[in-house]
Amino acid sequence: MRLREKVALITGGASGIGKASALQFAREGAKIVVADIDRESSEKVVAEIQAAGGAAAAVVTDVADRESVQGMIAFCEETFGRLDVLFNNAGIFHPDDGSVLDTGDDIWDRVIDINLKGVFLGCRYGIPAMLRSGGGSIINTASFVALHGSATSQIAYTASKGGVLSMTKEIAVEFARQNIRANAICPGPVQTPLLAELLADPQRRQRRLVHIPIGRFANAEEIASAALFLASDEASYITGSTFTVDGGITTAYVTPE
Ligand code: NAD
Questions:
Q1: Index of the ligand 1 atom closest to the CA of residue 144
Q2: How many other CB atoms are there within 10 angstroms of residue 137's CB atom?
Q3: Which of 8, 48, 52, 254 has the fewest CB atoms within 10 Å of its CB?
Q4: Which residues carry out catalysis?
């Protein structure tokens, strides 16, 4: 078992990448805290883990809210006694997030609050808990758009993910000598509820598909597998990395067909 005895907290753990990670991490022996704004879905993930013989608990959390995040970390320590793996994964993609010329301040603020400040708050309160446990692994979900501008504008989302990537590197440097590793996963487009509406439209789907050398979208389990590796001691010399899991998007120049 690759995460035996470890306690892993996963934000956005009720759906998509977070849910797939919760299930995979639990199969590898971790005790899981599912932290999500969606109570019902979180409880379903917890029940699934428990039914398979694993240990898990849910805490309703809004990652954009300081007190809620403080409560999330306290819940983790109270329930399982420690924090070894912090997967700051919750994020949103707003349908009205578009060009820099017409994206409203309200959309900008909402996306930045959840996607960027949410990761900041997770680290702000998660790192002290991790230090109390003697160190650990932080994984932050950025995106391939942290590395390349998106051809289909989503200015707040792209900016938020660039911030997540840079912040992760600085945290990695600051805490490397205290046995904390911090890495950013940069997924390409993944078939999860976050992109469901967009990918249901054949034109918008194809507009994105032409850029992916592997020729298909990722599934959540493929991103979870990368997170599992970074969470485990197999990644003991990996910190500050930009861990792309993107089907080759950021490597290739692909001529649209
Ligand atoms: P998803 O919509 O399936 O899951 C996101 C989860 O986050 C949901 O359970 C939702 O309830 C939760 N959430 C939303 N706002 C929250 C808040 N304020 N506090 C706590 N929880 C909240 O999406 P996903 O595709 O699994 O996305 C997970 C992460 O991966 C996000 O950070 C997303 O930006 C990133 N990502 C996704 C893709 C993709 O194509 N799906 C690509 C690159 C990066």
A1: 43
A2: 26
A3: 52
A4: 157
pLDDT for the residue 195: 82
**Per-residue confidence (pLDDT) for residue 257, from 0 to 100:** 55
What's the CA-to-centroid distance between 90 and ligand 1, angstroms? 4
Question: Distance from the CA of 53 to the center of ligand 1, in angstroms?
Answer: 26
Q: At what angle do helices 155-175 and 105-112 cross, to 10 degrees?
A: 30
CA distance 133 to 82: 6
Residue position matching structure tokens 């994984």 = 139
The answer to pTM > 0.90 is: yes
Residues contacting ligand 1 via CB (< 6 Å): 11-12, 14-18, 36-38, 61-64, 89-92, 114, 141, 143, 187, 189-190, 192-195
End-to-end CA distance of the chain: 44
* Contact status, residue 183 vs residue 222, Cβ threshold 8 Å: no
CATH class of 7-253: alpha beta
Query: What confidence tens digit (pLDDT) does each residue in 25-64 have?
Result: 999 999 999 999 999 999 999 999 999 999 999 999 999 9
Residue located via tokens 């078992």: 1
